[in-house]
Design goal:
Elements lengths: L1 H14 L15 E9 L3 H12 L4 E4 L11 E4 L4 E4 L5 E2 L2 H9 L4 E3 L7 E6 L4 E2 L10 H9 L21 H8 L3 H6 L15 H7 L2 H7 L3 E4 L6 H10 L3 E2 L3 E7 L7 E7 L2 E12 L5 H4 L6 H7 L3 E11 L7 E5 L13 E7 L5 E8 L5 H19 L7 E7 L3 E4 L2 H5 L2 H6 L7 E3 L8 H20 L1
Parallel strand pairs: 1-2, 1-13, 2-10, 7-15, 13-20
Antiparallel strand pairs: 3-4, 5-9, 6-9, 7-8, 11-12, 12-13, 14-17, 14-18, 14-19, 15-16, 16-17
Helix pairs in contact: 2-15
Length: 463
């Protein structure tokens, strides 16, 4: 492991030239001095930026895409006025959510189960309609586990001595704990659970389907009143534009070991290279090695972050499908354990609030291209047209999103060896903080965790 790290570090060091961090090597307008550098403009990065702005702190957000919002994505058709959320759909109806939407002038509305359409069930692999299938509901035994292990909601609180049963795969856990058939099946049916749920640990299933998720699906949820969840991020960008570098990435970094050393970052931007000098660095992107390789990781950081990986999940929008409006065409296995849908494949094709538009989610164990995913989705729609007896029309794909890596986690053996505690130990190390979706699954909890850690980050910058 050490030799591998030294090779990586050496290779990176060979590409870093000391003059890159010298202000005199840049035009004055290309040197940015701030209290904080935020890498990533998704849920965590945007929430941190708005809160820092409200406290009169200075910052720069570096975002690799052309927008803020991360996994909150909305397709907007300016010609027709269509607005379709294809990423984050719901938020728990609690003050932090209402306050953030209000702060960014975006109206909320109560979630209605009909927002997702009435479900009809099919086995997309076998090409079989399942008109008698019903979705089971979570029962009390599932909730009893969440209540017994309150750290399942937020793995920041996971003990180093993780209960062994929680590291079993879900089928093993359900059998050993004698979960009711309804809870055992329903626990695998959260719509955005990526990968093969039959290989997923009980820890991950409960962390995804936690108290927040249960509250949302029981009715204590809100969503954008205009089906435009991205509005908060569009409004944030309009407000923070001069402090945001879009289509930009970090290509070199110096991070000191003491607070007074701060950090220096070289950003590659559409207008050339910029030198960012900040007191503290906030990593608000998935901190997998592919994303952090230019941050000159030390041995401690590398040994922890190298364990981290995510899963593959995709979404898109289409129209001209010929499918029935107000229906969620849902993929379930006819004869599979817990009726788990086959992989890779479409999870669901759901009618959007705008007539004529549908969005879909797609799950795969291995990475797939947009062309491969849209071909499978097209074939699924063609079969649904035939099965439903509607006109065979060619669907038009309007938008596509790759949410990989989703639901980051280390291997099970590393969880057992205290990985989450080690990750928490990196907070503040070399003036660097991590606020992305490492310990929680949803935007609501990401905002809450970011709010909780910001005082420590601000204090470090003042030291």
């Amino acid at each position: 492991m050490l030799s591998a790290f030294l090779f990586v570090a050496g290779a990176l060091a060979a590409r870093v030239h000391p003059h890159q961090f010298d202000s005199s090597a840049y035009a004055a307008e290309d040197v940015i001095e701030r209290d904080f550098a935020i890498i990533g403009g998704g849920a965590a990065g945007t929430y941190a930026a708005i809160n820092l702005a409200d406290q009169n702190k200075t910052f720069t957000v570096v975002e690799v895409t052309d927008r803020l919002g991360g996994n909150t994505r909305t397709f907007r058709d300016e010609a027709t006025g269509a607005s379709i959320d294809i990423g984050v759909q719901l938020h728990e109806d609690i003050p932090i959510v209402r306050d953030f939407f209000k702060r960014l002038n975006s109206p909320l509305a109560p979630f209605q189960p009909s927002d997702f359409g009435n479900p009809k069930y099919y086995d997309f692999d076998k090409k079989v309609a399942l008109p008698n299938h019903t979705r089971p509901n979570i029962e009390g035994d599932y909730v009893a586990v969440l209540n017994k292990y309150p750290f399942l909601d937020d793995l920041n609180n996971l003990p180093n001595n993780v209960p062994k049963d929680l590291l079993l795969t879900w089928p093993e856990f359900a059998k050993k704990q004698k979960l009711s058939p309804a809870s055992a099946e329903a626990g695998l049916l959260w719509p955005a659970t990526p990968g093969n749920p039959l290989d997923t640990t009980a820890l991950a299933i409960f962390n995804d389907g936690n108290h927040v998720e249960l509250a949302e699906y029981s009715g204590a949820a809100v969503r954008s009143a205009t089906h435009y969840n991205s509005q908060i991020y569009d409004n944030a960008l309009a407000e923070l534009k001069e402090h945001v570098l879009l289509k930009s990435s970090i290509i070199a970094a110096q991070r000191g070991s003491s607070c007074k050393d701060g950090v220096r970052l070289v950003a590659n931007t559409p207008s050339g290279k910029k030198l960012i000098k900040a007191k503290q660095l906030i990593i608000a992107m998935p901190p997998v090695l592919d994303n952090t390789k230019y941050f000159a990781l030390d041995q401690k950081e590398h040994s922890i972050l190298s364990k981290l990986s995510g899963k593959h999940y995709y979404a898109g929008v289409m129209n001209n499908t010929g499918l029935e409006a107000g229906v969620a065409y849902t993929n379930v296995g006819e004869n599979t354990p817990y009726h788990v849908a086959g992989l890779p494949g479409v999870v669901e094709i759901a009618g959007a609030a705008t007539p004529g538009y549908f969005f879909y989610w797609y799950n795969s164990v291995d990475p797939q291209t947009q062309e491969e995913i849209e071909e499978v989705t097209r074939n699924t729609i063609k079969w649904l047209q035939s099965e439903s007896g509607v006109e065979a029309v060619e669907p038009t794909f309007q938008d596509f999103a790759d949410y990989s890596p989703l639901h980051l986690s280390p291997p099970t053996r590393d969880i057992a060896n205290g990985w989450y505690g080690k990750m928490k130990g990196l907070q503040g190390h070399r003036n660097t903080w991590y606020i992305s979706a490492l310990f929680v699954a949803g935007s609501t909890q990401i905002w809450n965790n970011t709010r909780n850690i910001l005082p420590d980050i601000i204090h470090a910058a003042q030291s």
